[in-house]
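Molecular record:
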Amino acid sequence: MNIGDIEIISLIDGEAILPKGVMGAVDDGHHTDLLEEDGSLKLPIGCFLVVSGDKKVLIDCGMGPTTFEWVSSAGIGTLHGGALSASLKHHGLTPDDIDLVLPTHLHADHVGGLVQNQKLFFPNADIAFGAGDWSLVDESNGPAFKHCLYSLREDGRVHLIEDDGELVPGISAYATPGHTPGHTSYIISSGDSRAFILGDIIFCPLQIEFPENEGLADMDRELSKRTRELVLRELEGNSALVGGPHFPGLEFGRVLRGKGRRYWG
């Protein structure tokens, strides 16, 4: 889709298959159409290519070619990725074409594809993400990821986002902490048009209608809820489009209010 003069292309890297119990609203009988026959919830692991002028910017970069299984009180979930290269190729691009990678946060299903074969998968790209997530470089994603990120930072190619504001023409950072300390959403704007790419502060549209539902892997649950409410207050009833890397079909919609609740449509 286009936001004024800027193009946004949704790219699939893989999918998350989640046990039904991870989203309370589904358990309560809401939006059961999202469930598979076995009761699981299947959502994409996606990325967004933003083409602004001569800049090609990738927001999130998926898991990379790996599968991760985790066990929770709700059941077993599976995340698997690796389709981003094919998605880029479908649009006539390769990883070499990416100028800047903007992870919303440093969880594996958003940055696992950043480092492959112990080197940066996007050889010509700089990396920028919320400064509060730098601590996660040491704590997650493995030693190759840590080594690569430290090396890139020494080379001046890792930029820690300290404040809200424009990063490249038409793309601005918007701090949305809680899911991780430095979780950052991105606002795409051109002319009078805007789109918000929300990362996991709103994991999927169910949390627009039921913002009290905790997100998967929220590191600070109370802060996440407060941030989610602030974001929704800003978005409801205006013309801004809203999407995220786990929204069904990687589609964008608007936050609407009706009958005392917010909806996505």
